[in-house]
Specification:
3 helices, 31% strand
Amino acid sequence: MTRRAFIVGLPLVTAGCGAGYGIVHDGGHTIAPVDMTTLDPGLLRQEVAWSGKEKPGSIFVNVPERRLYLVQAGGRALRYGVGVGRAPGVTFRGTAIVGRKEKWPHWTPTANMMAAIPMYRSYSGGMDGGPNNPLGPRALYLYRGGRDTLFRLHGTTEPETIGTAVSSGCIRLFNQDIIDLYDRVPIGTQVTVV
């Protein structure tokens, strides 16, 4: 094996071993490690081949596959496992841009969320950011035509749901992955969800 092949492949090996999914101390909060004992290794962040038409730096979310891709140069992408909307009609589809980014975001359930999940009514005034906030440590807010779509890419208080269809429509990632994605993409990044 050449030195270059080893260096290029190293992130893939370490991602498969759970590197980057341990305890994180951030903004005065502690983020729990991801339990790797029952986790599908295919849900972990890793570099993969990419042959789509999206430009480097853009985000592509494949809802049926339950994967998010951050497109890189040279036919590569970073792939993240995601949780998606529990019903086809509640998940955002189409294109948008990252119109806003927040660390430890405030969360207010939408009227539809409160109707579908009555316990959310107690949060109608919102919830400050923190380890119990359903958006997790970071949120990327999707905008279309200059307006907030009310859909987000965000962390989760339920890491066991990554790879499943259980959310109220937003795209959720492991908390360690949303921090990684947040740090990599600027406001204005194009997002395509299919």
